[in-house]
Design a protein that fits this description.
The chain is an alpha/beta fold and 242 residues long. The protein has a single domain, classed as Purple Acid Phosphatase, chain A, domain 2 (4-Layer Sandwich). The protein is 21% helix and 24% strand. It is built from 5 helices and 14 strands. The strands form 2 sheets. Strands 6, 7, 8, 9, 10, 11, 12, 13 and 14 form a 9-stranded mixed sheet that branches. The chain has a 5-stranded mixed sheet with strand order 1-2-3-4-5, covered by helices on one side. A hairpin with a 5-residue loop joins β9 and β10. The chain starts with a strand and ends in an 8-residue tail after the last strand.
Length: 242
């Protein structure tokens, strides 16, 4: 899958993070006048669901963008997107830091979880802005979002580009065991943002966001994968100049 999304074949589960529906409002306030892109998000989501036919769809937080209040247009767009996704499969939502009162915008059938994470089979799911509950560190894999990971690349002239990416790594055990004594050193997978307007944090330049990524993840030794599947090696080996 060459997409900012993940499909778990064993459970027919499609995982999507950081839709940030309504972000255009903040961009307008910054002087960037961009019309609503929700129709493009819907087209993208429909293509994915049509291709993979998921039984379950997990939204890994930050379904909406504006806090503390949402515009009428944003509330309408959130309902449109989640109702469309609900038509494809059972919808599961782990609220992110932008998702205050998100339950008011979701269909009654939606399964909403605590923001400290949930477990499906041997995988822990978490938006990433909060400390996860203890049980997640007993999983084989923890999948989280929130930080919108990118990798910064420079050409010979020093021109910078930022590419959305996946990060796959493990935690620093000495730090992690202090908070999670029973941790089993799960693999940590950090998802890119689905909405291309979100921007991101460069793993080889900036400090990642959220307690797990910022304090526990061994970022230097995490492996970097672009959306097309290209492996760039470990974060520490990706130089900022050539």
């Amino acid at each position: 899958m060459q997409e900012p999304a993940l499909f778990i074949d064993s459970s027919k589960t499609l995982v999507i993070a950081d839709l940030h529906i309504g972000i255009e409002r903040e961009l307008r306030e910054m002087g960037l006048h961009i019309p609503s892109q929700t129709h493009l998000l819907l087209q993208h989501l429909d293509r994915l669901c049509s291709s993979y036919r998921p039984k379950h769809i997990i939204l890994l937080g930050d379904v909406k963008h504006n806090i503390p209040s949402s515009t009428i247009a944003e509330r309408r767009d959130v309902r449109t997107v989640v109702e469309r996704l609900q038509s494809w499969g059972t919808l599961h939502v782990l609220p992110g830091n932008h998702d205050g009162n998100i339950h008011k915008l979701l269909p009654k059938e939606t399964q909403i979880y605590s923001s400290d994470g949930m477990i499906q089979d041997t995988i822990g799911f978490l938006h990433g802005h909060r400390w996860p509950k203890t049980e997640l560190f007993e999983c084989e894999t923890i999948l989280l979002a929130h930080t919108h990971p990118t990798i910064m690349l420079q050409d010979r002239l020093g021109v910078e580009t930022y590419e959305p990416c996946w990060l796959r790594g493990h935690v620093l055990e000495e730090k992690t065991v202090k908070r999670y004594p029973s941790q089993k050193n799960p693999e940590i997978i950090v998802m890119p943002a689905f909405n291309p307007l979100c921007g991101g944090v460069a793993a080889n330049k900036d400090t990642l966001l959220g307690p797990v990524c910022k304090q526990l993840l061994d970022v230097d030794h995490a492996r970097v994968f672009l959306l097309d599947g290209s492996s760039l090696g470990k974060v520490k080996d990706i130089s900022l100049s050539r």
